[in-house]
């Protein structure tokens, strides 16, 4: 599903150039659920952004579902993200003035699906998350766990092949974190590939494989 070869990424930092990723090689099979761990500044979020076509690599090759990702226009990149990828973030990234149903339906807006159909589909996904009765509540009326369930429903509504999650349990308490991981494992069993960036060992242990990154390089791959 995902294959990257010799990926390098650098950023200009004032007078200096910061070499963040230093020749990353990684293969993620369709249907796998993996975690990426590393200290702050190790390059794990940069790697996730490249996998999510939110950032571009300087050197190397990236194949997503057999398609080489390079020299994409922003429009083409956005289309690929909307079709292939779902995103879950630590800060939820919900739109504050839209209710739960409208937040979940948002990806379908960019697919030119009618308002009636996208809202109906959003309600189906909220029901799957146990949030049907919260559909017309704004994000500030929801708990952290409820917000993350809304975010997961939004990630799933376009039926992506891959879900990329950046510290998805970082803002949740321990009990809610475990509930989120139960949900992620259930989604994974439906055939969706999941990549989770986390600093929590107990979260990483719930995935099939842990990729450890140190100073921009993969130093260890652990089967859980």
How would you sum up this structure, described in words?
This protein is an alpha/beta fold. It has helices at residues 44-51, 74-84, 100-109, 115-128, 144-156, 174-189, 201-204, and strands spanning 2-13, 16-28, 33-37, 59-64, 67-68, 85-89, 162-166, 193-197, 209-214, 217-223. The chain has a six-stranded mixed β-sheet with strand order 6-7-8-3-9-10, sandwiched between helices. It has a four-stranded antiparallel β-sheet with strand order 2-1-4-5, covered by helices on one side. Helix 3 crosses helix 4, helix 3 runs parallel beside helix 5 (144-156) and helix 4 (115-128) packs across helix 5. The longest helix is centred in the last third of the chain and has 16 residues, at 174-189.
Write a concise keyword list for the protein shown above.
alpha/beta, 4-stranded antiparallel sheet
Q: What's this, in brief?
A:
This protein is 34% helix and 29% strand. The protein has 224 residues and is an alpha/beta fold.
Unreliable stretches:
none
Category from helices, strands and their pairing: alpha/beta
Query: Helical segment tally?
Result: 7
- What is the terminal-to-terminal distance? 20 Å
Any idea what the radius of gyration is?
A: 18 Å
Share of residues in strands = 25-35%
Succession of helices and strands? EEEHEEHEHHHEHEHEE
Mean pLDDT: 91
Quaternary structure of the protein: single chain
Q: Describe the global form.
A: globular
Q: How are strands sequenced across the largest beta sheet?
A: 6-7-8-3-9-10
What is the strand tally? 10
Report helical residue fraction: 25-40%
Strand count, sense and closure of the main sheet? 6 strands, mixed
């Amino acid at each position: 599903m995902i294959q990257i070869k010799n990926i390098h990424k650098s950023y200009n930092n004032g007078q200096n150039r910061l070499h963040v990723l230093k020749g990353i090689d990684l293969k993620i099979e369709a249907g796998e659920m993996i975690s990426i761990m590393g200290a702050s500044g190790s390059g794990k979020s940069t790697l996730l952004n490249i996998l999510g076509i939110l950032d571009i690599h300087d050197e190397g090759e990236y194949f997503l579902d057999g398609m080489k990702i390079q020299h994409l226009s922003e429009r083409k990149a956005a289309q690929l993200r909307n079709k292939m990828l779902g995103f879950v973030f630590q800060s939820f990234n919900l739109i504050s003035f839209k209710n739960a149903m409208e937040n979940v339906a948002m990806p379908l807006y960019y697919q030119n699906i009618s308002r009636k159909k996208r809202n109906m589909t959003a309600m189906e996904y909220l029901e799957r998350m146990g949030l049907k009765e919260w559909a017309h509540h704004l994000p500030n009326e929801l708990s952290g766990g409820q917000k993350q369930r809304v975010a997961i429903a939004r990630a799933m509504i376009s039926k992506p092949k891959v879900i990329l999650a950046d510290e998805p349990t970082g803002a949740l308490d321990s009990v809610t974190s475990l509930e989120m991981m139960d949900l992620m494992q259930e989604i994974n069993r439906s055939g969706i590939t999941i990549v989770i960036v986390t600093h929590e060992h107990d979260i990483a242990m719930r995935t099939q494989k842990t990729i450890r990154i140190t100073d921009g390089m993969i130093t260890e791959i652990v089967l859980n």
